[in-house]
Amino acid sequence: MDDLLEELQSIFRDILDQPDLVLARSSNANNVEDWDSLAHINLVTAIEKRYKIKFALGELQELKDVGDMMDLIQAKLAAQ
Amino acid sequence: MNLDAYSIDDLLLKRKSLRRQLSVADGLQPVRIAVLGGSTTNEVVDLLEPHLLADGFLPTFYQSEYGRFYEDAVLDPSGLIGFAPDIVYIHTSYLNVLKAPPAHCAESELQGYIDAEAGRYREIWKSLQENLSAHIIQNNFESPAVAILGNMDAVSSGGASRFFLELNTEFARAAASDPRLLLQDIHGISARIGLAHWFDWDRYFSYKILLTVEANLAVARSLASIVRAIYGKSRKVLVLDLDNTLWGGVIGDDGVDKIQIGRETPVAEAYTAFQEYCLALQKRGVLLAVCSKNDEGIAKQGFEHPDSILKLEHISCFKANGEPKPENILAIAEELNLGVDSFVFVDDNPAERAIVEAQIGGIAVPCIGKEVSRYAAIIETGRYFEPVSMSQEDLSRAGLYQANAARATLEARFASYGEYLDSLEMSAEIARFKPIYLERIAQLTNKTNQFNLTTRRYTLAEMEALARDEHVIGLYGKLSDRFGDNGLISIVLGRREGEVLHLDLWLMSCRVLKRDMELAMLDAVAREARAAGIRTLMGYYMPTKKNGMVADHYDKLGFEPISVDANSKESVWKLDISGYESRNRHIKVLESVHG
Question: What is the ipTM of this complex?
Answer without folding.
Answer: 0.85
